[in-house]
């Protein structure tokens, strides 16, 4: 989230699209209700009339996979009706930047941007670059009239997205589109603000990243970024998804969103050079220019005294990715199926049910020599070898089950969607032989280390030189009593030497050797500081010799009245609750909306250290620099961008600097209504020979459009997956609870009354839902929550299934099996997140 949960109450308009907070994030509805009590409007856009929609002031249906068309129409409407916040757009976004005159968009080039390589299915982005002046800075036109400025290119790109066209693509009635565009567009004024709440309904598409980008463009046009009650806010599906991402759970990042090293970056100097953005604009904070400090401090946290200047701070010991290597979820199991792995840890997950194309995942697991399943209960992954369709006698995979403690049986922190890190104490001791994850890891580490020590290995240094000081050690040197607080302190970081601010005269002591770091601002690139995650530096610190676990604080004061509660737990970064909050003020530092002032500049405020006048009040600002009206020292508000402003035009993405509508891999249309040449995202990775009857092997050289030229008439209905309140994820934690299972005992499929009549299916009938990949038995739930869509003068039906079920429990198999047996192996062009929210199925009565 750019903002936080409580902040939703500050919005004038709330758009829920790509999520269902009433059922999947129920606490958030408290703050939505608070906003509505204060006069806010709730808009819900969803293929299905959900419990969130039941509370909406405006509900609109749309066909799954058409969000960019819907939002692109809103961009056109905002621009045409001059609803955008012009002063904000001109000064705080790249709308004024001039782009290479050779840049062309899909409207000019048959569905692709300039630079597209059809054979390689990727872009050469040379024509996407900014025009630069004699000082190497982007040229600008603050009048926003130059035909090559971002604003005019945006206007041109979305000129094709008129309401009638959008309606014909999405199936959303034209009058609903206009109503929503008017209401949400009303927030492009200083005294009004809108927020957007989304979840996997936006991300799990082949255009998932661009779905969110489209909304970010809208929020920048309306001036809703950095504002109380604004932002683009991801509803994380579990209370620590944000925390796990922050700490590097994904293959392409280290903790703190530092890029995973590549093999071609042979030393630390090269790594820093390749990953540190440059700018010649002195008004840009360009915070990622500190990359060298963060990666060096990370290496010191990982390898301690074994990381020295002489050995490049142990950079060589970090794992590296080969050039072009992708280790995302879909690729992992695709490679597993091809015998590229011997072993696999399934830690706190159930890929045999949660993975797209779950049948393929289960076959891939059967190719392993060994697998470790760490979970509270056995599940479909741990017992995959005896599941439906498996030939047990042919499977050689050795499975190890390690029972883990539940969240109430262990101590530690969680970081929720709003970036709030909260410390939790243990309620009860772990049951039976189960152990907290940290203790399981501790056991594994010392056993693996002993094997290296006793038997050697090809590359022992990365393991043998780890700094592992997480508690009291026994005579053998093993940590015998694991202390999770020591991990938290290591994440925060230490001063390894006395550290001074050398910009002052005389130099000022920032921190003493051995003390916990006060903030990431103090981290150094010379090896004198450590931090396991720079974003969390300040989360566990000390003041005047007293050690303070900031995440354990429980203060209830709310000085701004905006619900930030700065004394409650700790929010990264540096307890800042609204990101890019310097955009909430005008060029002079005065709040756009004084009634909801996140921060404001006080020219008479005295700095207690320097005694200089001028300072920010309110939330922790995005840096202490004065507002932009100060031509000498004022800074741009978007500090993480080298440009210093919000990006309406995003030249860094794989599939285009502006979002463009492409159909899902599987859709009921023979061609893309926006342009017939490219039906699906032209940059997505294709998994040949996996999906179905219309794919050609790679050797046959079929183009992208040849391979997916038509839609399979055997599967005429659009399907999507979702969650229900009664179950949790794949149901491992809830299907074992009789009272939960009683409320939702088995797999079901929701379908409209109209489709049910066509298929002669009644409510409660047993049916088979099938796709090109598999079949699932389900109970038909005939409902008015789905309605047929009118798409391109044809009727399109959509159905939906929850993904909580699996064959392993209940033991009699009565719950059915995973909806992901139906979903395809295809992912987003930028992140590779699977497309499980739009695919094709058939339904037949048993």
Explain what the structure shows.
About 20% of the residues lie in helices and about 15% in strands. It is α/β, with parallel strands linked by helices and about 850 residues long. Among the domains are: about 5-50 and about 70-100 and about 140-235, 3-Layer(aba) Sandwich (Dimethylsulfoxide Reductase, domain 2); about 100-135, no CATH class; about 330-465, Rossmann fold (3-Layer(aba) Sandwich), CATH 3.40.50; about 700-845, Barwin-like endoglucanases (Beta Barrel). Strand 28 and strand 29 form a beta hairpin. The two termini are about 45 Å apart. Residues about 690-710 have low confidence and may be disordered.
Largest sheet: 6 strands, mixed
Second rung of CATH, namely the architecture of the domain at 6-48 and 70-98 and 141-235: 3-Layer(aba) Sandwich
Radius of gyration: 27 Å
Enter the CATH topology name of the domain at 6-48 and 70-98 and 141-235.
Answer: Dimethylsulfoxide Reductase, domain 2
Q: In order across it, which strands form the biggest sheet?
A: 27-29-28-33-26-32
Bin the helical content: 10-25%
Q: Class of the domain at 6-48 and 70-98 and 141-235, according to the CATH hierarchy?
A: Alpha Beta
CATH superfamily of the domain at 6-48 and 70-98 and 141-235, by name, is Dimethylsulfoxide Reductase, domain 2
- Taken as a percent bin, the fraction of beta residues is 15-25%
Low-pLDDT windows of residues: 689-710
Distance between the termini: 44 Å
Principal-axes shape call: globular
Overall pLDDT confidence: 95
